[in-house]
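OP here, attaching both records as promised.
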Amino acid sequence: TASAREPVPLMAPSQAFLNYTRSSRVTVKPVLDELMILHLETGTYYSLNPTATQIWNFCSEAITLEQITALLASCYEDVERDTLARDVRVCVEQLLRENLLEFAKP
């Protein structure tokens, strides 16, 4: 996942319905079962694990946290929905903090 510098605060409930999308300031390369992302402005590299890569792939177009959670729920049927939703929020928050995702324009 994105670098972990500090605990990630959970998003406010109102943010769950905002749309998120990939930043245009990055370049991406798949490496085995992970994804390498280079932020073009900072020169920082990030490595996403397979689940974070799925979340990244879902963000190719504007998407909400609820939509991401629903898509992942179909892949991870053995994971409780609340746990999955929390993990999605944490991942998206980390990607936002590192400017790898951004809020989609309405």
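Record two, same layout:
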Amino acid sequence: VARNTSSNAFNAGVRCDGAVSIFGSIVHDNTGAALSSGCALTQSDVEGGTGSNFDAPPLFVSATDFHLAAGSPCIDRVTGADSTTHDADGERRPFGSASDIGADERR
């Protein structure tokens, strides 16, 4: 799983049945645990983030608009090879020095 945004979800932000690799995603502000067992995140903004992940408010445009706002800590954070060439709006990645974490590439 790559380049997803999970916010305001009921129960776990991401539920993994088995071993699932998640890359460059945002998992924040969900009502239950951020992740179920079996989830392996890298280069993501996740509540309780460790390793190559971090934990910071992603700064969305609004509670219903999950585009990244100016000043988001998710902007230009993905390092290394990235096979995701377009964001959820169909816009090319990266736009800036590196790709952004999550479904949106901030313009």
